[in-house]
Amino acid sequence: MHTFPNGFYWGAATASYQVEGWNENTDWAKAGKQGRVPLAGRLADHYHRYEEDFDIAKKLGHNAHRLSIEWSRIEPREGYFDEVEIEHYRKVIAALRKRKIEPFVTLWHFTLPLWFSETGGFERKDSPEIFARYCAVVAKALQTEVRFFSTMNEPNVFGSNGWLRGSWPPFKRFAVTDLISITNSGRTFEARAEKGIKPLFLYLRVMKNLAKAHNAAYDSMKAVAPAIQVGMVKHVIYFHANWNPFNKLKAAIANYSWTSIYMNRTHKKCDYIGLNYYFHKKFGDRATYLKTDMDWDIYPEGIYGSLALLWKYKKPLYVTEAGIADREDKHRADYIERQIKAVEQAIADGIDVRSHLYWSLIDNYEWALGTEKCFGLVAVNYETLERTIRPSALHYKKLIEQYSKGIETKA
Ligand code: BGC
């Protein structure tokens, strides 16, 4: 039986700051200039080369693409909305539509306009209203071209790296984070963070404000553009355990803290939920795993458990990101194939999954880790800006074709 529904979306994702180049009016560019994170600069110059990149996506068989709008371009000063930049994104969306690629538009993917970050960002009491106003402007402007919007990308990653780990702006670090950190988001930068107990309280405030901001944005967007679909893109770490009940309890607490608290606050204001899956943590696990270039276990099957966790909210689920840093392209093809099988299984088991968008279409700026880590289906030469399709991208294309035609069968 072929399980992928008709109209399933296949493709890849990017985010403005990571690929566009020269997003200088942001907290990240400022941190780059201060030497706190790597400088971004021109990067892949996607801001000017999106046509070329979308041609590649088309050639690779994609029928959907997720991108983000750079808030600092649209609202460079508080309350001033730049029509020229809105027009730019209108052209970007039109370029996708022309190629029959469905756009999935994220309104905010980690970087903040300077005026906002310098006045407190999401620590500000009025941040939900500020964010909702920006989201409504974009929704109103792009509603005829875009069906799928998401308000924000991975609030928990934003909050924990910024206020618990201290590896991302605004570099605040909760003193005991060493005990609980499970991934490397930029260890060299954590050491310089402002350390103490206070960041924990600020983190809790920021997470509350982010949930309020999403909910307010949902309402403001729907008010001006009732026909659009508005969702939330959630990073899920799949915590699981061996047989040991104590380990099972640890996994349940971890899933609750990382995924459920935030989703409980926001799911009612979601037409759909986007899942970003990268890694798992199995308590009491003795197995050894191959590692990605990020040092994450290669465990694409964890997407099944992540989808199952989100399915409790009974909203359509879209895989909005899932990928592997693999500069040599040794593991990517196998990773994608195993992951698609796991998504297929989820669908067969009754979970309403509607897309698989690989992270990322092209190599990009991996935040505090710079451009060393290569997630792209397409390699980018940062000197010449030449794009080179990696072999795994062609494997993904083949899988898309097979699954779309229903050739792949389940036993
Ligand atoms: C983020 C991306 C990031 C990717 C790989 C996701 O958490 O949305 O911006 O590049 O993971 O780390």
What does this structure look like?
By secondary structure, the protein is an alpha/beta fold. The chain is 42% helix and 17% strand. The chain has helices at 16-19, 27-33, 46-59, 71-74, 83-98, 114-117, 127-142, 155-165, 187-190, 198-224, 245-266, 302-311, 332-348, 391-405; strands at residues 9-13, 64-68, 102-106, 148-153, 172-174, 194-196, 229-241, 272-283, 317-322, 353-359, 378-380, 387-389. The strands form three sheets. It has an eight-stranded parallel β-barrel with strand order 1-2-3-4-7-8-9-10, surrounded by six helices. Strands 5-6 form a two-stranded parallel ribbon. A hairpin with a 6-residue loop joins strand 11 and strand 12 (387-389). The structure holds beta-D-glucopyranose. The site of beta-D-glucopyranose has 12 residues, from strand 8.
